[in-house]
Amino acid sequence: MAEAAKHGATPLEGDGKRILMIFGTPKAEGLCHALGEAYALGARREGHVVRQLKLGELHFDPVLRGGYDHNQNLEADLLEAQRQIHWAEHLVIVYPVWWGGLPALLQGFFDRVFMPGFAFKYRGRSPHWEKLLSGRTADLLVTLDTPRWYFRWLYGAPAHRQMVRVVLGSCGIKTQRLTSFSPVRTSSETQRQNWLRKAEALGSRA
C-alpha cells in the first residue's frame, strides 16, 4: 500500500487499466499539472489505477553523453521509471511545447530511458528494429502559447510529429489522442476551467 501511495495510485488495484502519467515539465506547478490531475480524477472515477512520474522531481542527468556508443548507467530514478513504464498499459504524457519542440527535460528523459534493449532492439544491420513497448497506448496533453492552427499549418507541428511518429511510434506505443490546449498565454480563467473539464472527460474515457 505504501508503494502504491508513493506513485499516486489508489490503494487497491482492481480491474481498471494501469495508467502511468508522466509530467514532462520542470515546473513544480502550473497548467500542465492541473490538466494531469483533472485527467487522473476522471480516470480514477472509472476504476483505473493512475501512477505519476514528475520529471522535475527526479534526479538524473538528461544528457546522453556518449550516444549509443557508450554505456551510461541509469540513475535509480530512471530505473524506477522503466519499471513503471513496463507496469503500465496506458501512458499519459503531459507537457508544454517550447520553441516548437519538447522541453529539454522531457527530451533528455526519452534519450536516457528509451534505450536499445528497453524500448527497441536492433536486428543486426537491418534498417528495421523490434518495438519492445508494443501493446501500450498513450494520450498526450499538450499546452502551447501558439494557436493550434498556426502551429499546424505554419510550423508543421514538429513536436506532435516527433512524439507520435518517432518517440512513441518507434517503440510500439500507439497514440490514442493528442489534445492541444492553446493559446495559453492569452487564455481566460473561463477557458482554463473548460480545459480542465475537458481533461477530466478524457480521463474518464482512458
Automatic annotation (TrEMBL):
UniProt keyword list: Oxidoreductase
Q: Which residues form the Flavodoxin-like fold domain?
A: 17-199
Q: Which Pfam families match?
A: Flavodoxin_2
Superkingdom of this entry's organism? Answer: Bacteria
Which InterPro entries does the entry link to?
Flavodoxin_fold, Flavoprotein-like_sf, NAD(P)H_dehydrogenase_qn
The entry's family comment says: Belongs to the NAD(P)H dehydrogenase (quinone) family.
What PANTHER family does this protein map onto? NAD P H OXIDOREDUCTASE-RELATED (PTHR10204), NAD(P)H DEHYDROGENASE [QUINONE] 1 ISOFORM 1 (PTHR10204:SF34)
* The protein's name in its UniProt record: NAD(P)H-dependent oxidoreductase
